[in-house]
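Progress against Task 2.4 (sequence-to-structure conversion) is shown through the following example record, which the project officer requested during the mid-term review.
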Amino acid sequence: MAFGVKEDNPVLKGGSKWSNLSIIFLFLSISCFVVPATGFALKYCRISYNNAICSNVKLHAVPQDIPSTVTGFDLSGNKISKIEVSDFKNLPILTVLDLGGNNISQIDKGAFANLISLNKLNLNGNKLTKLEDGTFDGLSNLTELRIKSNKITAVASSSFKPLTNLKTLDISFNVLKDITIVSSIFQHLPRLQELIIKKSYITIFQSWELTNTSVALASLDLSQNPIRVFRFTADVFPNLTRLNLGDSPRKKNITWEVRNKTFLRVATLDISELCLPLNDTKTLLESFDTSLTTLRMNKIKRNVTALINVSCTIPTLTTLKLQNNNLNSSDLFQACINLTEIDLAENQIKNVSDKSFRTLRGLMILSLRKNKLSAVPSVIRTIPTLVELDLSSNLISALDCHDFANMTRLKELSLKNNTITELKECLFKDLIRLQVLRLQTNKITKLNSAFSKHLPYLERLHLNGNQLDCIKEGYFKGLQGLKNLSLYENKITRLGKNSFIGMKNLTDMLLQYNKITDKGIHKSSFKDLINLRTLDLRENQIFYGASSALRDPPFSLLSRLESLSLLSQHHRKKSPGLPCNILEGLTNLLYFNIRNTELLSLRVGMFNYTPQLQHLDISSNDLSDVSPDLFAPIQNLTTLYISRTNLLSLDFLLKANLSKLQYMQARKNQFSVIREDVINSLPALEYVDLQGNSFTCDCDNALFVQWVENNNQTQVFDAYNFVCNYPPNVKGMKLLDLDMRSCTVDTGFICFVSTTCTILLFMLTSFIYHFLRWQMVYAYYLFLALLLDKKNKKSQNQYDAFISYNTHDEPWVVREMLPKLEGEQGWKLCLHHRDFQPGRSIIDNITDAIYGSRKTICVVSRKYLESEWCSREIQAASFRLFEEQKDVLIMVFLEEIPMSHLAPYYRMRKLLKRRTYLSWPKARDHAELFWEKVRQALETNEDPNDDRFLLRVVDKP
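Structure tokens generated for the chain above:
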């Protein structure tokens, strides 16, 4: 039937759409069981700047919880005895691996095969006895290999074959003995540039045994080997520039044969501590007289003068190092006319003759450190070519104005570790090109304007470790080019006004470990320091008491300062807090350190002047509580140290809005519970250190434990050693060892159950929607009818019959049925187009019409059977028939419809098998009898067992 604009919908319309949604739900259910990435809480290691540090933690095996993103891996100082194939399988971008200081005696073949990016490998200090084939498989990118201090006695012929890019190899302090082993090393290392084989018990070194050598070799260290035969008859090292033969334990004659001086064209030769007879040493030196520029003869002890004379005959020699030879005079270089550098450190020189360096017209670098000089030697004034002079660690107590006269080319001067007490104004008047001056660790108490006029190009001045008590105005006004000033470890109590006037190029100033007080710092003290980047005032006595604000903030003129350290101020009582405007003017400050300054609080607003701050250290202060508003102005903070501050919780971070914080150290506080929302408030956090806190091991920390074990972004340092402090029954146990599954909901299982139920419910709903939709709708309204007692009673029937028909059959109903039943017989009929109430839903109107009528007459035709709404009406009528067990249904067929055509219409076919019906086509010639039968059907009572009236039974199609 039709009502208004009712369309007949196909049963499976939209089925494909619902099927797609079912598939989506299936994928959602599967996604709930994706295993999360391995957690970032390492049991034995920590990650620092993308390096895994696992040194000195007594490991017996390589840990397997290292993130695959590390580029450095330090396993030194452990007890690992074997390297297995699986140890480094998941570290594809590792570039540096340190396995030094273990007990490694075995390396499986292919153990390093997955380290395709490795550049440096350290195996020093282990127990390897042999290098097998396949030991270094996969290390084609290795450039540096160190295997010293093992017990290697044999090297397989192809063990180094994979190392095609190796440039540095240190295989010292092993037991190689035979030079043929060295030959096998060279055979497969075409790019080797540096080979170190110290103390390997090599006694014979002959060139003919070195086949297929590395033509790229530039440095060879054979020191501390008892070589008795050194024979070069071929040019096997054409690019060798550095050779070390020093500290040989052999004291007898050595067979030294170099057939052609061009075979060893080395530029640097080290024969320090070489215990050879003079003639053998002379023979050795004469082999290098065509290329040698640098010669080290430290700790020779014997025949030093003769060796100096021999070496100075080498025309190319420019640098001579003679440390620790017990020389008591420097009058040894009469024949050395070409030297530009002489190192005479650690000798016993007390005096230097005026004739010592007379012939050295081109001497540029002279070192006399660690001798027994009591004054600056007058001879240096006769060497105007000097560029560097080192007089450190002597016994010099006084400096005169003429000590550095005429040294106009000097760029670097070191006088540290002497006993100098004061400086004269005229001392540096001739050092117009000096760039570096080291005066640290003396006993200087007075500067006497030594830096007020001269040294215009000085860049670095070291005055630390002296006894200066104050910095007066104008002390450094002549140092207009100075960049670095070290004044730490003095006795300075105050900085005078305009102390650093004129020093506009100064970038770094170190004032730590003095006795500077808050009254000893003035705003004007830092006048002109417009380019200062680093100021270190730690370990002083700065104390502001109860001052909440300063009249003249001391650092307000240092607008470009990037690093300020005020840590460890020594005073007798605790400070209620730094003045809120102490950082005024520091708009570019990046680093601020106030660790261990005995503060009781930090005033809100003190960081209003430092919007660029990135690193903050407030550790070791008795703060107890920190306001989240303190951090409001420093949203760029990336590093925060809050260890040993007696903080009870980290809840202040919830409102601090530190969205860029990456590193946080919060050791040894009073944290017992770490809340999940605190962690979630730090989205960029990569490293957190919570060592030494008193954790509560109950359900309050269950979410924190779960986060530690499962998160793959933040490294929780030493998490596996967190110890429980409460409740008493688990005190001393490890936090991560406790089973807290009973505290947390198994989200995986819940996800499985909920998604399974959702899918089943979705499929059931989809099935009902497509196949039982109207049955459910009618059942719903039937339930409402029962609930509201809307069932039709005889006394409540408004109509004698409800006519159910299709719109296409409406002409027959109006012209034939309505005049007969209403006009002639007087029945009250209900027709949808006439009696349904406008505005109500169709379902409500149908239900009320069926239950408000004594009978329902279904006018059946082919169109009727195809109509979805008509099928719902006959369903509702059959529901009433089933529910009330009354004869309330009259079926009238307008067309002859074979039973085979009724197969798709299950409900109609079922009714026809149990009930008789009226056929209009067969009664058309006897219309009066047809309408009489209809009248009789309407008059009969509604008992289905009453047989007083029978319709004419026609042949069933």
